[in-house]
Amino acid sequence: MPRRVDHAERRTEIAEALVRAAGRLGLHAVGMRDVAAEAGVSLRLVQYYFESKEKLLLFGLRHLTERFAQRVAARVAAAGADPGARAVIEALLAAALPVDAESRTFHHLYTSYAVLAVTDEALAAQPFIKDPDSAEDTVAGLLRQAAEQGELRPGVDPRAAAAGLLSLSAGLGTSVLVGQRSAESATGVLAHQLDLIFQPAK
Amino acid sequence: MPRRVDHAERRTEIAEALVRAAGRLGLHAVGMRDVAAEAGVSLRLVQYYFESKEKLLLFGLRHLTERFAQRVAARVAAAGADPGARAVIEALLAAALPVDAESRTFHHLYTSYAVLAVTDEALAAQPFIKDPDSAEDTVAGLLRQAAEQGELRPGVDPRAAAAGLLSLSAGLGTSVLVGQRSAESATGVLAHQLDLIFQPAK
DNA sequence: ATCTTCGTGATACGACCGTACCATGATGGT
DNA sequence: ACCATCATGGTACGGTCGTATCACGAAGAT
């Protein structure tokens, strides 16, 4: 049956199996055999499409971040045409909160990768650390724009406020993930933070 | 030379070896043999004082959080007698930022444990999740007190602001840990956040 | 029609890990 | 003075993990 096969597609399927398995077992505990079983292929095939576990992990990380970026973009787009800056930011940050299974898995695995990156230089060199930076640029741009229209409270620095919002969202995500805080509570805290930044609606 | 030995002390020594080794290799990569070598004892002894790796890990977590709580308390105390609420909060949160080796290790390992807790129910049941809650209570109390003295900006909810500060601090810590943000930048963001909450100094 | 290359399977190998087992001085109680 | 117990060392065992090896059928190229 060995027809010619689309490697890129196959690699994507396996990467998604990795994400599913790692979401269930934890990234630290997932092995090549688990990924193979999850993808419904033999161990050999996982080796064939990714030469080593390290390559698989790296590809899985890229896949994970790309999927998530698409999700966030879709949520922002769903917020409607030209909503206010606050609405866009709220949609963006709310999409990142681990309130459903997909987002939970993302948070779980992204944090796992971040921890690994502390001691693994190959991961540390990976550009996945830059994704938050670009998100921060986006939010800072929105805030600057809002500031020009007088929508922000006095004394708010767009750059610092953007950094604060992103870090706040990340921290909230972790606390929701480990069950310390409920999703509703987290969105409430987020809204309160936006209240501190934006002028009250007139 | 087997004199009678203080078990509690020995266990603490080994737990500290665990923390050092895990800080260097990553919690996922540290084994009993690594801990033994780091502590300068034989593998057998680690087994002797902790019957299993799980017990060792659990004890290590407790030790880690206790040490860190002491550190934070010391920093707060060093802030001087009866400083303002803002100064206390700033000292508390700044002490938690991973700016030196000890705090970096704490953040690294605490996050590692948190990730493990997502898939390990023994860890999830551990009360280490409650530590942030008590910190939040402390900060909320300080904010409430400040609110009564009119030191907060109007519309600030002490509870939500406290939760926001803690989450912000945690998120900042992670970004500093992975090298996305500098320590100075993080303290700046933290200060800006406090500016959003507290009235400007008169 | 043959041959090379591709996709796939099964399985083996070496390393490491947590744990268990056996041995043995030293010590303190009586 | 003896003996049970404590602290410690050495080492072996079973399992798993990532990787490498061997094998083979099917398809496209020539």
UniProtKB/TrEMBL annotation, chains A, B:
Pfam families: TetR_C_6, TetR_N. Residues 8-68 form the HTH tetR-type domain. The keyword Lipid metabolism does not apply. Residues 31-50 bind DNA. Transmembrane segments: none annotated. It comes from the Bacteria. InterPro entries: BetI_C, Homeodomain-like_sf, HTH-type_TetR-like_transc_reg, HTH_TetR, Tet_transcr_reg_TetR-rel_C_sf. Keywords: DNA-binding, Repressor, Transcription, Transcription regulation. PANTHER family: HTH-TYPE TRANSCRIPTIONAL REGULATOR BETI (PTHR30055:SF234), HTH-TYPE TRANSCRIPTIONAL REGULATOR RUTR (PTHR30055). This is TetR/AcrR family transcriptional regulator. The lineage of its organism: Bacteria, Bacillati, Actinomycetota, Actinomycetes, Kitasatosporales.
